[in-house]
Recover the amino acids of this structure.
């Protein structure tokens, strides 16, 4: 099974050494310096993608696009994360959005199915710290991109029709990838995952359900006096600030454009330069990867200008 097939089957793929050790040190310094101010990193996005473009296209194929959505993170740990996926069901901005998108695509209702096995957005999480000997990276649930949450309408339907293998629940099998600095997790945006896994000293290669991780994190977070005992005898320590880079790639699809627009408008680190034709052309020259044309974003902006909501 090659890497592309593994990603398709399990919904995620761990790729070691996506960035070199020198690049890791460079981006660590940037993450620490500009923590929380993503605008400082726009020039570095092209640089990062150019360094990993060959590996990306080897795994995802030549017809892959960059959505323009990215995050440089240097974040504190120690709060619970429920298992979730990052697929976007609808833009939570205006009732006009759905109407706009429906007009763009006559087969919108047929294509836009959140339970699709082939959700067209792939997220790449590049980690700059060592999580082979620490807690705090992302717990992944193999095959969950082809399942529906037990409490969702699709999940309940599968339950009542006895399609139990298509139901996701938080106690299903999970994996804590052994991530070293510069390593990356490629995952389908529909793959369920939870942030900041706990690595246990007694069984470091076992991933417990997120429920148990959250108990440990709650105790550690709410009662700091327990830190020394927990991290010496029970769990591997958490890194004070998890530094990582998230980049979103996709295949050409209405769903991809909705995802792109959702991230763009909702303050989720959308790259404003996707509307700049010169930037997109230079990005393509440097990386050999095109930026997904932002036609949903442009259509929304045009409608808002026409309505007088925003200035031309």
């Amino acid at each position: 099974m090659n890497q592309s097939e593994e990603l398709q089957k399990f919904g995620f793929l761990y790729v070691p050494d996506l960035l070199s050790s020198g690049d890791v040190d460079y981006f660590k310094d940037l993450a620490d310096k500009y923590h929380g101010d993503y605008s400082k990193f726009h020039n570095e996005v092209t640089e990062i993608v150019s360094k990993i473009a060959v590996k990306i296209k080897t795994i995802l194929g030549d017809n892959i696009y960059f959505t323009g959505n990215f995050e440089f993170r240097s974040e504190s740990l120690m709060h619970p994360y429920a298992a979730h996926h990052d697929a976007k069901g609808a833009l939570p901005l205006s009732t006009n959005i759905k109407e706009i998108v429906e007009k763009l695509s006559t087969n919108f209702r047929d294509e836009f199915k959140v339970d699709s096995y082939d959700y067209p957005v792939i997220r790449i999480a590049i980690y700059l710290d060592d999580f082979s000997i620490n807690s705090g990276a992302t717990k992944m649930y193999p095959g969950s991109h082809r399942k529906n949450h037990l409490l969702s309408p699709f999940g309940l339907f599968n339950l009542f029709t006895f399609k139990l293998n298509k139901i996701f629940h938080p106690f299903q099998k999970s994996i804590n990838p052994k991530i070293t600095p510069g390593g990356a997790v490629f995952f389908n945006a529909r793959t369920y995952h939870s942030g900041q896994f706990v690595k246990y000293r007694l069984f470091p290669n076992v991933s417990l359900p997120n429920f148990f991780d959250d108990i440990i994190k709650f105790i550690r977070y709410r009662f700091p006096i327990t830190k020394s005992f927990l991290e010496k005898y029970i769990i591997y320590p958490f890194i004070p600030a998890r530094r990582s880079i998230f980049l979103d790639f996709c295949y050409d699809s209405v769903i991809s454009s909705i995802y792109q627009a959702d991230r763009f408008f909702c303050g989720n680190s959308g790259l404003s330069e996707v509307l700049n034709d010169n930037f997109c052309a230079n990005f393509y020259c440097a990386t050999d990867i095109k930026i997904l044309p932002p036609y949903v974003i442009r259509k929304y902006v045009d409608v808002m200008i026409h309505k007088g909501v925003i200035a031309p």
